[in-house]
Amino acid sequence: MSHHENQDLKWYEKLSHKIEDKMQFLVWIFVAALIGGLIEIPPFFLMGEVKGPVSITPYNALELAGRDVYQQEGCFYCHTQMIRPFKWETDRWDRNREYGPEPYSKAYEYVYEHPFLWGSKRTGPDLWHENSLNNNASWQKQHLINPQETSPGSIMPAYDFLFNTPVDIEQTKANMNALRKIGVPYTDEDIAKADQLLQGKTQGDALVAYLLKLGRDTKQK
Amino acid sequence: MSTKTIDYDNQIVRWWVISGIVWGLAAMLIGVIIAFQMVYPALNFGPFLTFGRMRPVHTNGIIFGFTLSLIFASMYYAFPRLLKTEIFSKTLSRVHFWLYQLTIVGAVLTLLAGKTQSKEYQELEWPLDLLIVVWWVIMAINFFGTIWKRQEKRLYVSIWFFSAMIIGVAMLYIVNMMAIPAGLWKSYSIYSGITDANIQWWYGHNAVAFVLTYPIIAMMYFYLPKHTRLPIFSHRISIVHFWGLIFIYMWAGPHHLLYSAVPNWLQTLGMLFSLMLIAPSWGGMLNGFMTLTQAKEKLRTDATLKFMLVAITFYGMSTFEGPMLAIRSVNVISHNTDWTIGHVHGGGLGWVAGMCFAAIYYLVPRLWNTKLYSEKLAELHFWVATIGILLYIVSMWVSGVTEGLMWRAVDETGALMYPNWVEIVQQLAPFRLIRAIGGTLFLGGALIMVYNVVMTIKNAGAGFEYVDLREGIKAA
Question: What's the pTM value of the predicted model, to 2 decimals?
């Protein structure tokens, strides 16, 4: 605003004036903003599939329906699914010593996670090894219905209504089909089995099945 | 400068101001409710009013309802004035406004119904994502068209920052929204696992940059000199820190993923660039402060200026705290804790909302051609809000450090001291209650502002009178 005579201009002012004239600055903003992402993101597509010591199976129809409920209720706003490589975290979430010498979360464990549900806030405990920690379906159900009864002092909301809401079978099949298109190896048989697995099930039942799937494949003994 | 009069189209600015106030109040109220839910779980009313469904309404409502409305208000106000020409198309301005409102209403309804892509700050399902793309393009045409037909050759720095938002958000949003639909309100991210996490936080962190930082800096550079009638301290700093921010911010996202399963090289890059961000961030903060301190003894303060001051102060604090939290050894304690929430709200309540309130107090009397109903009430709003912010962030610091330390505490045998999670949760309850009270104060301050604005608008047309804040200078 202050300088209008050309002879006063510093080099950086001349440069910015030059790219203002025909709005080239918009292109330069795009380029400057693009570089970070160009360096950080494409390598993930180039490094190929992440391999691990055990194979991960995709969620079956009931577990997937449960994962959809987990998304629907925003569980990941309070529960993480990412155990960091610290002794105090692995002591807490591998207390039964079932996940080998390096019992923290590793990249291969998440290959079928569309989207990832690591969360960013650990108001409640991490759930990535839930199968190992609390493999009791009726406790899980009771806890979802009335968290304060099973865990006095908990601040978790009650999810009793999930046990009155039936799972949408057709939607779950459509979901499996969609996931198959983006690389989750569902067979026609897997999808056909949805009818049988989901028959008469509630969203709450599905959520319990999902929670008990977490950490089941990655146990190493 | 041409002598023909420009139709500034204040009507569209008025609409955006009202939109910002309405969505701001709604989103703040939801924030207060979910803050109390974290102390009193009985306040959850399933299925629609549980914490998990209301939290994204709060975050999206504040970022895209409140803040973006006031950013657009500022853009529709500043562009014609800085470029000495009318906005490209009045029709597009209105199409932009109403499609935006449709999006926000759709967002509230679908999020409460549990329709979500589960990516933070990009929860909206694909039909709403597509709607956003449509009006974002319309909005871009409208503003870039205005720059194209401008009558002022030189672009003021605010135009640069606003333009960066338009371009950057478009790039981030389109990459992160890629999903495969499985029905009208259900889709899955096409990316999985670590790739999805990487892309999400590239987006998430830069939503903070391109929505909650650059346009707010643009507002600072616009309102501060306008209001104080002082030139900005350094155009050179503004140019240098502009390019610094645009370039460096985009690398910093992986600090959200420290010690996670993403590769180490990515974490290290994220940490390094986060540290580097201090320089361009503080460049902007110092430029704002120096603009004022050049003449501070000659300036009177009013509520608008006070809110700008508190905004710049919290900007400086948050942009120091952020890089610190991005250092691995600090992140060990702070990650996933309430400290992060405190950090976000130092920036959110102090910087973003502070600047938005300053904009409201600046714009309302001018747009409705009248005097502000009560400077005293604005002052009261300022103090109530500031105390609210302090209660909020201090309680979250204490709570966050407490839980971070309790998670890792071991006794002399090396066993966890607090294996029972609920024990930790109960320790945090008093701090979370103080946080909720701080939030309530902040909302109370906003309600005082709404009363002030309503009373001001009731007196519309009474004549706006510019008060020069510089001591000893008669009003122009």
Answer: 0.96
